[in-house]
Fold:
Amino acid sequence: MAIELKDVEHLAGLARIAVSDSEKEVLRHDLEEILAYVSEIKDVAAELGEPAVGELHNVLRDDEGPHESGVFTEDLLAAAPAREGNRVFVKKIL
Amino acid sequence: MDIKNLTIKQAHDLLVAKKMSVLELAEAVLKEAEGSRDLNAYLEIFDDVRAQAAVAQKMIDGGKATLLTGIPLAMKDNILIKGKIASASSKMLEHYVATYDATVTKKLRDAGAVFVGRTNMDEFAMGGSTENSAFGVTKNPHDKTRVPGGSSGGSAAVMAAGAALGALGSDTGGSIRQPAAFCGVVGLKPTYGSVSRSGLMAMASSLDQIGPFSKTVEDAKIIFDVIKGHDPMDSTSYPDTPAEIENKKPKVIGVPVDFVHAKGVDPRVLENFEQSLEQLKKAGYEIRDISLPSLAHGLSVYYILMPAEVSSNLARLDGVRYGYHADGANLADDYARSRGEGFGREVRRRILLGTYVLSSGYYDAYYGRANAVREMLKQDLAKAFEGVDIIATPTTPTPAFKIGEKSSDPLQMYLADIFTVPVNIAGVPAISVPSGFVEEDGAKLPLGIQFIAPHFGEEALFTIGQDFEGARSF
Structure:
């Protein structure tokens, strides 16, 4: 599986990670090598059918009994890099 | 007091007999922790250890002691303790303060345990040497030019240095067992779902599991018994240990011969493993050769599924709600710069790899097929356990390697996990128990043997582990 520099740039864009030019070539080489190693499973898997899927069941709690409003607000906002009142502050996107 | 060799069980007996106070024990451990700072095993030694000790002493004086009351424990830096920094050894979370207790933290706190500090690790638990920490490598107490293993390398190193009586780590592909082997201590990866992951920073959610480090198998059981159990906060936690698990004494050990003799396994590791099997025979176990060809695919499956899950789980770290923030020209630029600067090299590599195997056009070829092979591996293992009670392998293919030896070659680093990874893929429990030493450059480097049991077979692991401790010859 040949990986090109433009593939690395595309992946970095999808992952929202800024990658320096000097690192792109290292990543290209590493990804190519790792993908070559793991590609052996393609031959193994070719002989297998679809994996069995377990029975679906709801693992989430019922949407009831919410905690009192505001009890965690200060703790959580204290962790935000920028805030404005009781909101996390971000740059405008429109 | 010989703090380096003191076990949890022994310390408990001394505490309840009032032959030692919790504070005396805590001071002795703190002295070792201070004295071994050059290892860089603790990222932080907590400033409230003495206050915690006072709380534990009250429990003992009030006759409410559990086996862990007053016992100084170390926590891997990816497990939350409310009010303490939890950084996962990442620049991304360098100043992040936990806003709640992990379930395991709460259970240990309720049992009266004393948290000594948080331990160094590979960033976000990605690595096998602790070299990927944003805060410097941890050194192996047995040879300071070598790595302690990883990713829970700090927890393993503080145990070997006598700077805690027990420690917690997390194990996604071997991150408890491999450093335990490298540092000559016991490490348990419990059955997936037996210990709550609530409050553990997610790396690869279908593989992650919290487990203990200890000096003895008995101590590992003491910690496991406290932290296990169903938790509604973790949707993958099992309601209860299924009733059909019979706790019969294990007798037959299966050895996947072809897998164990794979290319790249140090002959000294194999020799030590054969000796261990001889000792187990003398202790009454039957050794049987088995064939498990699918184990050889474990690493490939792992390096597809794990990065896929990593790329999803770490998407939450965006420099907006918490963690490292770098200011860019616009919001998209904020994201890219915060993540580009906040994450280290290995984390960036795995996120990109995961993004690749999940991307349109490659999803079926990689992620889909890896899941199919995962199922095959699970079924093959289940079939093997119809004929044997325990499967044994060396824990690692080599003893601890030199700092810097593999850091520029990710694939070589990944191969250090070859024996431990299949266990996480199948979700079964496994324990690493010290099995001896090899001498190199004048240092005695520890080795470990890994015992694997079927789902919820922890009791069988404790039984064989203790039998092995009694039978081994060093």
User: Anything to note?
Assistant: Chain A touches chain B through 47 residues (CB under 8 Å). The first helix of chain A runs from residue 5 to 14. Chain A has a mean pLDDT of 89.
